Amino acid sequence: MQVLQVQLEIRPDPAEVGRARRWARSRLAGSGIEADEPLAETLILLVSELVTNAVVHTGRPAVLRLSLPSLVTGPTAGERAVAEAVATVRLEVLDASARPPRPRCAEGDETNGRGLALVDGLADRWGWSSEGAGKRIWCEVDRCSATAVAAVACDSAPAAVTCDSAPAAYEDLAFEVV
C-alpha cells in the first residue's frame, strides 16, 4: 500500500477553518473516500477541531497534513482485502507554539472546551509531540470498508480483520464511535 501525503498552510485566521475543511474534503474524495462515507465526515470534523485549536489558541500560522492510503494491486485478492480493511488515514496539525494541548471539560452551555474530547472520541489514536520550536498534534482513523471486512469474513483473505467501534474514554467521560 502506498501513502499519499498532502499539506495545506493555514493562516492564523478563523476563516481558515472553513478553507481547511473544503480542502480536506476534496483531498479525501481524490483518494477514494466519498463525501457520504461516515469516515469522511469524521475526518472533516477532526480537521475542523484541530485546525480551530491551532488558529484560536496559538494565533500563529500552522500546517495541516493528511496522509491518505492509496491502494495498489497486491498479489492476491485476499491480501488486497486485508490491506484495504486496515488502511489508516492520518491527520496532523503542526504549529509554532510550544505550549502543549490542554484537554478541558466544558460544562453546561459553554461553547469551548470540547475539541480534544471530540478528537479522543472519534479518532482511533491521537497524541502530540514537540516539533522544533512548536508541536505536532496528530490523530489516526482506521478505514474499514464493508467490502474488505466481508471478504475477510468469507475466508477469501488470509487473516481475520475486525473493525469494531469500541468506546474511547476521556477522563471520566465515554464516547462511543458510531
UniProtKB/TrEMBL annotation:
GO terms for molecular function: ATP binding. Keywords: ATP-binding, Kinase, Nucleotide-binding, Serine/threonine-protein kinase, Transferase. The keyword tRNA processing does not apply. InterPro entries: Anti-sigma-factor_SerPK (IPR050267), HATPase_C_sf (IPR036890), HATPase_dom (IPR003594). Residues 11-138 form the Histidine kinase/HSP90-like ATPase domain. The keyword Kinase applies. This is ATP-binding protein. It comes from Streptomyces phaeochromogenes.
